[in-house]
Amino acid sequence: MTSSSLRDWLISRQRRWGTPIPIVYCPHDGVVAVPEDKLPVVLPKHGENLDEWKITTCPKCGSVATRETDTMDTFVDSSWYFMRFTDPHNHAQPFSKEKCDELMPVDLYIGGKEHAILHLYYARFISHFCADEGLTAHREPFKKLLAQGIIKGKTFKSKSGKYLQKDEVTEKEGRLVETSSGELVTTSFEKMSKSKMNGVEPGDFVSEWGITL
Ligand SMILES: [Zn+2]
User: How many whole angstroms from 20 Cα to the centroid of ligand 1?
Assistant: First the structure.
């Protein structure tokens, strides 16, 4: 699979949480993968000393070696979780081929605009990789994509450019004005955001429609 717009996928992140990268650095053997029977690598808990955790032994020669401390990008997890969902209690494998083949591919992928590019590429890449490795029968993970776009909300702005809440605005002689100052208010539709005060208040919907779990 090739793409004209996807660059190399840099998966490492410098942070204390996330999925560990199972690599050890040995002064003799260089970069050594942690063998399967030593997986998973478990990150140090909060308060544990990272420098002590880093020190380990080389799986190849037994020398003192250091662990990789970067963790993986969360896209690595979101690229195959739907396959894990087909077999969530499997403690020996990511998923069994039989169960994955029974339910995959996903019938409908619904996502925002931002998912249509990066996540889709990464998920497809992992899916093609699993197919090449014989882990799954399917190559493409999603049968159909529905990009729902961005949901916008009505925005009220004062003359000075300040965002206003709906209840700070009143209609006067056919025009919208800021209630406190009487100044004209402009309206538009923008991407929903707390700072723009144009989101949907869940409480209002719950009181009007109720909620069922
Ligand atoms: Zn070694």
Answer: 20
Are 129 and 118 a contacting pair, CB within 8 Å?
no
Same domain, 165 and 140: no
- Ligand 1 center–CA 67 separation, angstroms: 12
- Say which residue the tokens 């009143």 belong to: 170
| pLDDT digit string, tens, across residues 158-205 | 988 899 998 899 998 889 999 998 899 999 999 888 899 999 888 888
Among residues 90, 45, 94, 44, the alpha carbon closest in space to that of 69 is found at 44
User: What's the CA-to-centroid distance between 59 and ligand 1, angstroms?
Assistant: 7
4 domain residue, yes or no: no
pLDDT interval class at 112 (50, 70, 90): confident
Q: Could you tell me if residue 139 is inside a domain?
A: yes
Surrounding residues of ion ligand 1, Cβ less than 5 A: 26, 28-29, 58, 60-61, 63
Give the strands of the sheet with 19-20, arranged side by side: 12-13, 71-72, 19-20
Q: Are strands 163-164 and 152-157 parallel, antiparallel or unpaired?
A: antiparallel
Which letter does DSSP use for residue 13 in this model? Answer: E
Separation CA 66–CA 58 (nearest Å): 8
Q: How many domains does the chain divide into?
A: 3
11 Cα–ligand 1 center, Å: 25
